[in-house]
């Protein structure tokens, strides 16, 4: 099937069942490939729409699509989400009785299911079903679990190679949010799908703001962070069970709804924590890395790493649990040397100790980098970002840079001359002209022309510069090849082109001053349309016993708030509204929107009447105090009325209440404060010496006269 032919066939299905009018990233190409019965490996960031890549084809295939999912506790939520969209689905795992499992098998054989979620450990119970007459496709979710190179190696996944032998003509689609080159190759090998088409979509999650802070007074910083974001859902990742529980105790003392999650809890307790979080009964979960995989909760607004993750893959996967709905989200990482040492101890003695430590070093380098953090993340996964992202702490508080092109050329030239077979340490030893055993034994001091060309730069400073080159994507570490440094597709642009490389100088300890700029999040108005729709969504979710985001996610509510559809024809046009959801929920949400608009019109009418009453009293020559007394309002409210009436063009002698000098002062304050939306910043700017009413009147003059 060509992409052109597929568009007319697939888009109606996409809208009917999932509520979207167009595909994202490479979804359409992937779906077309699956429908053509090709094997596929899909690397797509969390929230990028991986599930649709196998769920939509499942609707068009005759048989069932079996989805291998790692977490039993989350299968019910995934199946509930499909059912909410009108898609017949079920799950099969050890939590069910024998009778329930027989019923699921019977449904599958009769062709009554389109998707069946199964844990790898439960596949043995589906032996009679794993036949090509019943199964149309196999989807392996969280496929990085297959690989020993990956960050979440899981033996039960590594035994899935038998599927291709059992179902040789059935397409397999393996999906994960994070996999470097070595992991991708390992997944393909383990699943025995060597000819799989590989789709590597952009890893760039632009909506997530990235920030790293030193780990001093972590608890205090977290409490302030949460206080600025009341009612927002978040996850805090900790290194140990004990730290999750200790942090929960401290949060609860401040009245914050938080719960701990770790492997030490029994199955029922872990399931309850997950369900309470998914159903918005718990605001925050403090968890070890055991929490989060496969969670589809779309309204997680932030993720905090109390401790440093052991590698960039894990960090990227975990922060990806925030902002799945595409709205703004935050990722905050606390960097501690103590965490690094602890993680090194954990890695010691493991089967792939060298790889784990090398990846930990990259995580440490990410935390200490003076360059755009998003660039570092993307370059790690082989994606090059030409411009800084503007949405990380480094971009918002950038260090001072210099032209480091010559330094970059020296590093890259040495990597070339040494034939890309040495790690960072040896490259630096050659640049500095070291006469140690590692250099002398390989005769680098005599055969490499760049030997000793960087004697004037210290070893630590060279390391700082090499790491910056890696972070910017001009060279990379091959973890599966003894951590040697290799060139990338962009290296030639520096060596032979005109590409200029900007670098930052290493900061001394006394220069490392953290600039924290934390802006208080705008609270959602209690009676805003969004809040009313959110409450309606929650009420529906409780009645149907499904998570609120399965009704509609926050992005859909935001669009409903903006577009305010009042008919079914308008409602179905909203992104995220499919045919079934319109039929089931449409009337309820349309009624709420109409009620809100009616109340707003009535309030506006009352407000207009209120302003007119003040204006009539003003025209009769009453003073501010007299008007306030007659109307039983405060004088500041009357000043506010006069300011609004003046802007609206009424005949108000505004300079009777505010002088031109004050107006001029407020003009300067407005520029200095970059046009704040409230009066308080002005009040503080004038050191509380200018009255609120004077500021309000001055602003009305500025608005009316375009000053």
From TrEMBL:
CDD domains: DEXHc_RecQ, SF2_C_RecQ. Pfam families: DEAD, Helicase_C, HRDC, HTH_40, RecQ_Zn_bind, RQC. It catalyses: Couples ATP hydrolysis with the unwinding of duplex DNA by translocating in the 3'-5' direction. Its cofactor is Zn(2+); Mg(2+). GO terms for cellular component: bacterial nucleoid; cytoplasm; replisome. PROSITE patterns: HELICASE_ATP_BIND_1 (PS51192), HELICASE_CTER (PS51194), HRDC (PS50967). GO terms for biological process: DNA recombination; DNA repair; DNA replication; SOS response. GO terms for molecular function: 3'-5' DNA helicase activity; ATP binding; DNA binding; four-way junction helicase activity; hydrolase activity; metal ion binding. Residues 218-371 form the Helicase C-terminal domain. Its EC number is 5.6.2.4. Residues 523-603 form the HRDC domain. Residues 31-197 form the Helicase ATP-binding domain. It comes from the Bacteria. Keywords: ATP-binding, DNA damage, DNA recombination, DNA repair, DNA-binding, Helicase, Hydrolase, Isomerase, Metal-binding, Nucleotide-binding, Zinc. PANTHER family: ATP-DEPENDENT DNA HELICASE Q1 (PTHR13710:SF105), DNA HELICASE RECQ FAMILY MEMBER (PTHR13710). Belongs to the helicase family. RecQ subfamily. This is DNA helicase RecQ.
